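1st attempt posting a full record on here, be nice pls
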Amino acid sequence: MNRLTMVITLAMVFGMYGCVSQPATKVHNQDTAADAEFEAGAKRKPTAKTMYALAKILATQGRDAEAEVVLNRAIAADPRFLPAYCALAELQMRQRHIEKAIQVITDGLKQSPSEPILINDLGMCQLVNGDPGAALTAFICASGLAPDDHRYRSNMATALGLLGRYDEAMDLYLEVLSPADAHYNLGVLCEARHDDRRAKWEYQRSAELTQVDKQRRKAQLAERKKLDAATADSSAVSSPDGN
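the predicted structure (as tokens):
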């Protein structure tokens, strides 16, 4: 995997956190479900929400072109229905149509300029498009609007790392990740910047902390078993039937 691909993959792992739906309920015949939606739509004017749900089904089937058409119709039907913008941008991102995704999110922000989800998604597009500076600005804005959402701060850390601001990135990562995971993520960012020496150190530190965590958990488990055994012995002694 080359470094550019690694950065794109990293961004997609963090994800476009906009309107990620809950895992779809397993449907035995999704084609039938989609056909039913269309048939129902023939009898009444479909809502943006209905078209959005249909597009999600089509996307899970790999029918991206059809999903894109339906999402565009949903936006046309109700320009204020923000989940459709998020889903359409996510679809464009998967196809590596970054500029189209940015335009979709920009259109959504015209409807709701202070929507943190859309602002965060814009930052993700900019990050994948190779502009971590612009992405950082978007993530800072999203985090300011929704300070309790740790994902936005994690995305800020990613942008900072790609800008070479490692210490600031680590401080933010430590707010939302374990130390081992924080060092590993920073290692990936260092490697993406061709900073192989720093990346190697971060990976080693992550491995060391992971081992320490394993040893600590093992010791805690042993101590818990010891306490449980002592409690059981104490209960046996204090029992009326105990000798």
